[in-house]
Design goal:
The chain has 675 residues and is mostly beta strands. The protein has a domain at 119-135 and 169-269 and 279-291. It has helices at residues 2-21, 434-439, 647-650, and strands spanning 28-41, 59-70, 77-85, 90-98, 102-113, 118-121, 129-130, 145-148, 150-164, 167-186, 194-215, 218-231, 235-238, 249-252, 257-271, 274-287, 295-297, 308-322, 327-340, 355-370, 376-391, 397-410, 418-432, 453-468, 471-485, 490-508, 511-529, 543-564, 567-586, 599-621, 624-636, 652-654, 659-672. It has a 26-stranded antiparallel beta barrel. It is globular.
Length: 675
């Protein structure tokens, strides 16, 4: 990666330059060195979604070095360099700056994203061509090959800033490489669904330039942003292990593309209590590389005569004023236009892709007023109009208007209790063209959520109560209820309830304890139709209804303890329990034999997670500090959707949906005296 090499070169130059910076006798210099070791068991990627363990089930080294310098003659001028390798990532960075005048800095890091990475598949490799072994004779009795799914990321950035009087110029150059394997899916028919290991080999380079002016009552900023995405793993060719008579297929893995955006924003103050602000931008996204249909026979030529392009325009305008000490208000308007200039794809002899042009306008007003007796009221009204059109053999048009009214009331303190109430009401009204109305009558079509008319209500109450000088209790409850006026089938309703409780307690100055509990319950209901019934016309497309319930419960407790001036400790413990279940009921007799009124319960999904993180720091002497850190994570997914037992049905299975992960680290840091 050329950008990464260039940035590493900057770091070496920065580090080499630091001794000369420290030659002045009055300069403040801080240099430190930290080293240690760690041991992990089943820890690869377990401790957080984007934390990295480049090592697993073995010992590993920890290390860090740092240098900080401040000019003795100019206290606003400073510089520094640091590098480390630890549990989370490998990183290096440095800077040279004068506060409010200039800055140059760089940042390099490497980490890995892994989630339940071990899997079993019928495919023996993990490249861009997935072939079945020569002796493959179907899923029954097929051999399983072990693979590992994970993506390693390398990131580098260089940032520059220079100020001339009231003008400031900033520039950021960044690059990211991703390499590894992820799991993707493909299907020609419902029964031919397959999960496939797909290669990841991507790079994204970005440039961000900003020129700002601040003077008097004006603040102006103009920017230019450019991003280039390059995919070296262009496509994936595979043999279907379910339908072995099907020819090789090629799956599109996204072509190269780039986007550029120019913007202008700022504000003008009429006085200390009135201000108008604005934002204007135009973005141009292009995909001029040949690209595939989503799924096509292997060996077919790319559709390279078609270019993809979308031009986006955004306008925002806002005005706010504080009329007096009690009353203030804000007015906002924003406009968004998405102009899709991509050629229409002929995906079949009679059908074409649907390319949407999208236009949205939003008007909103809100106000706040302090009533007598410590009452405080905030309220607002928002109206949004969205229009979408498509360019295809049949032109569709979708309109959706949304009106939202909300209010928030803070009650006067009832003794020590402070309460806040909030209510939100939303009304959605859609308007579809005749062609769009006709398209949803077929069982294979359904209106997406953002085109469904209906209404939504939200209620929220929150408060806090000091139980003593050292104890504070806080809690909240929120309920959201969505109802949809669905003329055919699809989403019918959605509700959610969230309850949270927090307690903060400081029994003495050196010890702080906090505990929390969170409960979330979500329910979704939808209507469906029997798809592709048998030849009997009696109950064709029989209706059914499905309910999906998701419940989540989380509790945790945190300790912070200053044992002595030289010794401090922290302990974080949490437990999370998540459960989902699915049930359905036939609303009429179906051709496939189900009787109206009968119900089915589908397999659910449950996950339990416990985490413990503990750290102890001992300042043995002013220049020497010892640190011990321990991490534990237990994951239980006993009703995991795709475990190894399902290998004979899917040709794929996660190798280990449940695990216990541990990591312990010990390090010592030495701070050198000023040079």
């Amino acid at each position: 990666m050329s950008t990464m090499r260039a940035l590493i070169g900057c770091g070496v130059v920065s580090l080499a330059a630091t001794p000369s910076l420290a030659s002045a006798g009055d300069d403040d210099v801080s240099t430190w060195l930290e080293f240690g070791a760690g041991l992990s068991e089943n820890g690869n990627g377990r401790f957080g979604e984007y934390r990295q363990l480049l090592q697993t089930d073995r010992a590993f080294a920890l290390g860090a070095v740092g240098y900080q310098w401040r000019d003795g003659d100019d206290r606003y001028r400073s510089g520094g360099f640091h590098a480390s390798a630890d549990l989370a990532q490998n990183l290096a960075g440095g800077y040279l700056a004068r506060q409010g005048d200039y800055r140059i800095g760089f940042d390099l890091r490497e980490f890995e994203a892994i989630s339940r990475e071990r899997f079993v598949s019928v495919y023996p490799g993990d490249g861009s061509v997935q072939s079945l072994p020569p002796d493959y004779a179907g899923l029954a009795g097929a051999r399983g090959f072990v693979g590992h799914a994970g993506v390693r990321r390398q990131q580098g950035s260089l940032d520059l800033m220079r100020r001339w009087g009231q003008w400031r110029l900033t520039a950021t150059l960044a690059s990211e490489d991703k390499e590894g394997t992820r799991i993707t899916g493909a299907s020609e028919r419902f029964g031919d669904a397959v999960l496939i290991p797909a290669p990841v080999d991507q790079r994204q380079d970005t440039v961000d330039l900003q020129l700002a002016y601040q003077g008097g009552q004006w603040v102006l900023n103009t920017g230019w942003y450019y991003a280039r995405y390059t995919n070296h793993a262009r496509s994936l060719t595979f043999a279907n292990p379910v339908n072995t008579t099907a020819p090789l297929r090629t799956l599109d893995l996204a072509p190269d593309n780039d986007i550029s955006r120019i913007s202008l924003d700022g504000h003008y103050r009429f006085g200390p209590a009135r201000q108008v602000s604005w934002y204007i931008s135009r973005a141009d996204a292009r995909q001029d590389d040949g690209f595939l249909e989503p799924l096509m026979p292997a060996g077919s030529a790319l559709i390279d005569s078609l270019d993809a392009r979308r031009v986006d325009t955004d306008l925002r305008l806002a005005y706010r004023a504080q009329v007096n000490a009690r009353f203030g208000y804000r007015l906002r308007w924003d406009y968004r236009d998405r102009d899709n200039r991509t050629d229409v794809l002929p995906i079949s002899a009679t059908g074409f892709s649907h390319l949407y042009d999208h236009r949205r306008q939003r008007w909103s007003a809100d106000a706040r007023y302090r009533l007598p007796g410590q009452w405080r009221l905030r309220a607002g009204l928002e109206f949004e109009a969205v229009e979408r059109t498509t360019r295809s053999d049949i032109r569709f048009r979708d309109d959706l208007d949304t009106t939202q009214l909300w209010s928030e009331l803070r009650l006067p303190d009832l003794g020590a209790l402070a309460l806040r109430l909030k209510v939100v009401a939303e009304e959605r009204d859609s308007d579809l063209s005749d062609a769009r109305e006709a398209s949803i009558s077929a069982p294979s079509q359904a209106l997406p959520e953002y085109l469904l008319a209906g209404r939504s209500t939200q209620y929220q109450v929150s408060g806090d109560l000091p139980l003593s000088e050292r104890t504070l209790l806080a809690g909240s409850y929120r309920r959201i209820n969505d109802d949809f006026d669905n003329p055919a089938y699809g989403l019918r309703g959605r509700t959610s309830d969230e309850v949270s409780l927090n307690v903060s307690w400081q029994p003495r100055k050196a010890l702080a304890v906090s505990a929390y509990a969170l409960y979330q319950a979500f329910e979704i209901s939808q209507n469906g139709l029997e798809f592709h019934p048998t030849g009997s016309p009696s109950y064709a497309n029989a209706p059914w209804r499905q309910w999906i319930d998701d419940d989540s419960r989380t509790v945790g407790i945190n300790f912070r303890w200053q044992v002595s001036p030289a010794l401090d400790a922290s302990l974080d413990i949490s437990h999370s329990d998540n459960d989902s279940d699915y049930r359905s009921r036939w609303l009429a007799d179906a051709d496939t034999g189900e009787v109206g009124g009968t119900s089915d319960t589908l397999p659910g999904f449950g996950v339990d997670t416990q985490r413990i993180e503990s750290t102890v720091n001992w300042q043995y002497r002013p220049d020497l500090r010892f640190t011990v850190r321990y991490l534990f994570e237990r994951f239980r997914g006993d009703d995991w959707a795709w475990d190894a037992a399902d290998f004979t049905a899917l040709g794929f299975g996660w190798g280990m949906p449940s695990y216990d992960g541990h990591a312990v680290m010990v390090s010592v840091r030495h701070d050198f005296d000023s040079l």
